[in-house]
Amino acid sequence: MKLLTASEETFEAKLLREAIARASAVDEKVEAPERVRWSKIKDRLRPTQTALGFDWCFYKLKNFTSEAAAQRYMDSKARLLARSATE
Predict the structure, then answer these.
(1) Going along the chain, which residue ranges are E strands?
(2) In whole angstroms, what is the distance from residue 41 CA to residue 45 CA?
(3) Angle in degrees, CA 86, 61, 45, rounded to 5
């Protein structure tokens, strides 16, 4: 495997190298977050419509193995909507 010089390094490789350097520089031990029951905090948490939309998209997209599979799924949904609109 050929090692790249700094000028030949890709942008992604540079980002990864910098992230690893930052992570290894942290000396503090990260404490586990406090766990709170949903019933106690649900009145204080209000996700935005945008956040819900992004979460839904990522949930759906992680089930597709390729762009073509996602397009086939969306086409099938469009056909169902068109069929129900004509009935």
Answers:
(1) none
(2) 6
(3) 95
Q: 44-85, pLDDT tens digit by residue?
A: 777 777 778 888 888 877 878 888 888 888 899 888 888 887
Residue 69: enclosing H or E segment and its boundaries?
helix 67-86
Residues 6+ positions from 64 with CB-CB distance below 8 Å: 70, 73
C-alpha–C-alpha distance, residues 14 and 22, integer Å: 12
- pLDDT tens column, 14-39: 778 787 777 766 555 667 778 888 77
Q: Which amino acid is at 28?
A: E
Cα separations in angstroms, 3 against 19, 36, 84:
19, 48, 58
In sequence order, the 6+-apart residues with CB closer than 8 A to the CB of 9 are 17
